[in-house]
Amino acid sequence: DKTGTLTQNKMTVVKHELASEENHFLAGMALCSDAKWDAEKGEAVGEPTECALVNDAGKAGMTNLMAEHPRVGEAPFDSGRKMMSVVVESLDGKYVQFTKGAPDVVLGLCTKVYEDGKVVPMTEERREQILAANKGMADEALRVLALADRIYDEVPGDCSAAALEHDLTFCGLSGMIDPVRPEVAPAIAEAHDAGIRVVMITGDHIDTAVAIAKQLGIVTDRSQAITGAEIDKMSDEELDARIADYGVYARVQPEHKTRIVETWKKKDRIVAMTGDGVNDAPSIKRADIGVGMGITGTDVTKNVADMVLADDNFATIINACEEGRRIYDNIRKVIQFLLSANLAEVFSVFIATLIGFTIFQPVQLLWVNLVTDCFPALALGMEEAEGDVMKRKPRNAKDGVFAGHMGLDCIVQGLVITALVLASFFVGVYFDMGYINIADMIAGTADEEGVMMAFITLNMVEIFHCFNMRSRRASLFTMKRQNKWLWGASALALVLTVIVTQVPALALMFFGDVTLELRGVLWALLLAFLIIPINEAYKAIMRAVEKDQ
Predict the structure, then answer these.
(1) Which of 337, 340, 376 minimizes the C-alpha distance to 492?
(2) Distance of CA 415 to the CA centre of its chain
(3) Among 144, 205, 287, 485, which residue has the least CB neighbours within 10 Å?
(4) What stretch of H or E contains 178?
(5) Catalytic sites, residue numbers
(6) Nearest Cα to 277, choosing from 260, 291, 297, 252?
(7) Using an 8 Å Cβ cutoff, are 109 and 169 in contact?
(8) What count of other Cβ atoms lies within 10 Å of the Cβ of residue 30?
(9) Which residues contact 230 (CB under 8 A, 6 or more apart)?
(10) Among candidates 255, 260, 256, 287, which has minimal Cα distance to 274?
(11) pLDDT by residue (tens digit) across 259-278?
(12) Is pLDDT at 27 greater than 50 in this prediction?
């Protein structure tokens, strides 16, 4: 919904096309409004469009119109009629009806027009001139309203719309501008890059809507716009076939909005609908994601919306899309990191059990899960969005968390870590015995140093691996920004691992009476570090595989 989301909702009258005397026109526009002049603020308060009209009259010194011309009857605004009418008391004892609304609708009710201060019959030539003036304003991205009047000698007995709105005299056009938000055009360009289609729904004249949409980069040509009246003439099958051709829907009613949302959903699109008024509530409710306006939105709209924009700004929606992609990416990174690490523990224990030796004690595995896994995983959740996150197409809503070969990634990385841990264990056994004897290992006579090396390697490989997981596919060495939380978590896990292996009392509890020489520590670190180049090679292979998919 355009107003207040794509635009600032700060209407200002900038142009008139007058038929009647100017003061009569300004007063009529202000009186046919529910906005009121606030003497303390020196401006009108109320709905933005009507405030613009009251402010326009206020600039001409007409700030006390309501008191001077009390309202005695009205036909309130209705989106179906696209206009409203009021009857006010005139200074000369007569009564004046003012009707304000969409130019094409109001003009259709006019049988007369002011000409040089006199009322003359409306001609087709004059009607064409007025419509041309209306189109000229609309092409300048102005919202245009028309005013007509009717004079009574006494208060009308029937003030219904049907009784009031006919045989009117045309007074003029008022063109107002609602500036687009400066940040919206770049946000829409970013949305298009991210595979997000932006379409605009508005009650404005189609020419006004197209002019604004062109400014924002939503459409490039008027053929990409359609009106509510044209939608009414289309069957569901026709609309379904052509819905993607349009980026602007103008002069729409609430039922059109709901139909547009439903048709897009039939295209298997995830549809988000924004709005602020009561008339927007049904379409917001039907959308996959209803977005209400926090500042200008009605309580009804906010209650049915799935999310509420605190600043009523479209750019915030795109920022939320980026944040959502970042969070989802980080969740997958954490899951992959934890699964690959835990699969390595399972594979290592399983293989050792098959052979018949012990590679880890329960307390050692508990340490790895609570310390080495925990802190880096939490820090991965703080990772900033990758540079291409808003260049990717949206993921399929039916994709599971393991889509995109993530299940394969977990298994391959788990097996690599298992191989490094087992290699470290056997190197430790070799350092302890000078040879590797499976029979002695099964007997449990030569595995203490191997267990300590395997433990150090498992801890360190997970610390190194968490840096691999900053991106599932991009090379670690191409990432320009650093994750300070990850560095801190890794440092903490490293310090705690050093303490548990080097403080005698803790080392005795975890490993028994064994000390590891410097060469064992260095070999454990070297084997752990190999996870980085191995994973870089794996990422390169997967980038090549997925490039053509």
Answers:
(1) 376
(2) 39
(3) 485
(4) none
(5) 1
(6) 297
(7) no
(8) 27
(9) none
(10) 287
(11) 999 999 998 899 999 988 88
(12) yes
| Burial label, 351 (beta-carbon count in 10 A; 0-12, 13-18, 19+) | middle
Of all helices (H) and strands (E), which one includes residue 238? helix 236-242
Q: Is the pLDDT of residue 379 over 70?
A: yes
What integer pLDDT is reported at residue 512 of this predicted model? 64
- 231 token code pair: 């939608």
The mean pLDDT of the chain is: 89
| pLDDT attached to residue 404 | 86
How far, in Å, CA of 94 to CA of 111, rounded?
Answer: 21
Q: Which amino acid is at 429?
A: V
Residue with the bigger pLDDT between 442 and 151: it is 151
**In angstroms, what CA-CA distances link 26 with 54, 59, 117?**
8, 10, 15
Q: pLDDT tens digits for 61-83?
A: 998 898 899 999 999 998 888 99
d(CA 489, CA 62): 68
Query: What does the block give as tokens for 354?
Result: 């098959």
Q: In this structure, how many other beta carbons lie within 10 angstroms of the beta carbon of residue 513? A: 8
Among candidate residues 13, 78, 88, 11, the one with its CA nearest the CA of residue 47: 11
Q: What is the pLDDT of residue 190?
A: 93
Measured CA distances, 191 to 133, 248, 294 (Å): 35, 16, 22
| Residue 175 bridge partners (DSSP) | 15, 144
C-alpha dist (Å) from residue 541 to 143, 409, 544? 56, 12, 5
Position 396 pLDDT exceeds 90: no
CB atoms within 10 A of CB 218: 25
Alpha carbons 376 and 383: distance in angstroms, whole number = 11
The Cα 98–Cα 33 span in angstroms is: 10
Query: Which tokens sit at 295?
Result: 């500042």
Alpha carbon separation from 357 to 53, 148, 429, 444 (Å, rounded): 87, 96, 12, 7
Per DSSP (E only), the strands in 116-233 are 118-121, 143-152, 168-177, 200-201, 225-227
Q: How far apart are CA 164 and CA 154, in angstroms?
A: 13
CB 275 within 8 A of CB 283: yes
The two tokens of residue 168 are: 């009117």
Query: What is the pTM (predicted TM-score) of this model?
Result: 0.76
| Type and span of the H or E element at 90 | none
Query: Structural domains in the chain?
Result: 12-177 (3.40.1110.10), 184-316 (3.40.50.1000), 318-547 (1.20.1110.10)
Q: What are the tokens at 135?
A: 């189109």
In the numeric block, the tokens 């991205």 are attached to 141
Q: How many residues does the chain have?
A: 549
